[in-house]
Amino acid sequence: MSFRTRIASIGRLLRLQWAVSKSAFLLSMLATVLAGIAPPVEAYVLKKVIDVCLAQAGAGLVWTDAVLAVLPWLLLMAGSALADGTHTVVDHGGNEVEVPDKITRVVIDQIPILSTYMSYFGGEAPYIVGFCGSFKTTISETVLKNIAPELMETADTVYAQSDLNIEEIMKLEPDVILYNANNASHAEILKASGIPCVGFATVGASTEADPIERYAQWLKLLEDVFGEPGKMDAFISAGGEIAADVEARIAAVPEDQRPTAMILWKYANGVPMVSGKGTFGTYWLKRLGVTDVVVEEASGFTQVNMEQVYTWDPDILFLDGPGLLNLKTADVLGNNVGGADFSTLSAVKNGRVYNTTLGMWNWFTPNPDAPLVLAWLASRTYPDAFADYPLEDTIREYYKTWYGYDVTDDELAQMLVY
């Protein structure tokens, strides 16, 4: 039911109550107005209304007088909501969500969308009032902290990405919450708050988790949320041109010259975790045209043992980079990894261990740098075919054009030689 329809229904009910009893009218009006406004106006606003009523009653006013005391504020709130309006968004979970036309306060729960959000606003991150503190740890190691420093000053809703504290979120009075559409437990709690919640797909969704497609899907959903259709078409198209050029070069590489590869997603206490079928890594390796040694034997993010890694023995070992994996290339090449011996791997013997770097975000997860990530991966995988590829110039131009940011030499070195 639209907001206008709810208001009309409320009006009819109020007229009926007035004819019966003025006292009953006032009490019913409070209940019905709150019930009618609840879906599009945040639950924290309703709590404030009730708190004011209780405070007025506590000061000696009868309940009906207390209601009258907040009536003008209630009507003002309803009028403001009606004037601003709402629109319906269909999120990646298939949910129809009614969001305000005017959004000025955003909370992000779990989904690593901060860099994509920044790209949506061309180098800024306005309106965000809260997200998990662990994301700040990742941001602090990226160029994103310099492009949108306001992100480092945003409130922490929780620290760990998997945690949820709805009370802290509600204190921030968001107009909308952006969350992981695949997290059913978070979704249930968030939706119960009455705050509009929009789900963004990561892995495990009905659509494939190709990072290059996924970041574009995130941008298109942000267009829907903010009511700006087509805003990101040029940006997405420019990224598509970079990806198409890279893939054309890869296509020219003979099949017998394409290596095997795997992605080490996490590692702790001697136990490796690999990026298996259906994860972001699956699609990166697919676009690279290499043989993914993991995909037929592991699904999702899977714990394995080192004996299995020795059996796979990839020609190239990609490390999943800061924010997810603390190992660096030098650690593996120097065999300085506690609890495991990587020295017998062909990738280590031949110096073909590459750490997924940080540009805007961890480069293996969906992010607006995705076309650049593909170019970087391809240049490492096929050094001869990409010997003349202008990777550094492409990165600098992309950042300048789309983020309004001049990448420094130090920042570029950090991106490419992590």
Describe this structure in words.
It is a single chain. Helices cover 47% and strands 13% of the residues. It is α/β, with parallel strands linked by helices. The strands form three sheets. Strands 8, 9, 10, 11, 12 and 13 form a six-stranded mixed beta sheet that branches. The chain has a five-stranded parallel beta sheet with strand order 5-4-3-6-7, with helices on both faces. A two-stranded antiparallel ribbon has the order 1-2. Strand 3 (106-109), helix 5 (114-120) and strand 4 (128-131) form a beta-alpha-beta unit. Helix 1 (3-20) runs antiparallel to helix 2 (22-37). The longest helix is centred in the N-terminal third of the chain and has 22 residues, at 63-84. The relative contact order is 0.10.
Secondary-structure topology with pairs:
Layout: H1 3-20, H2 22-37, H3 43-58, H4 63-84, E1 86-90, E2 96-100, E3 106-109, H5 114-120, E4 128-131, H6 134-139, H7 144-147, E5 155-156, H8 166-171, E6 176-180, H9 184-192, E7 197-200, H10 211-226, H11 233-251, E8 260-268, E9 271-275, H12 280-288, E10 291-292, E11 301-303, H13 306-312, E12 316-319, H14 329-333, H15 346-349, E13 353-355, H16 370-381, H17 391-403, H18 409-416
Parallel strand pairs: 3-4, 3-6, 4-5, 6-7, 8-10, 8-12, 12-13
Antiparallel strand pairs: 1-2, 8-9, 9-11
Helix pairs in contact: 1-2, 2-4, 3-4, 11-16, 16-17
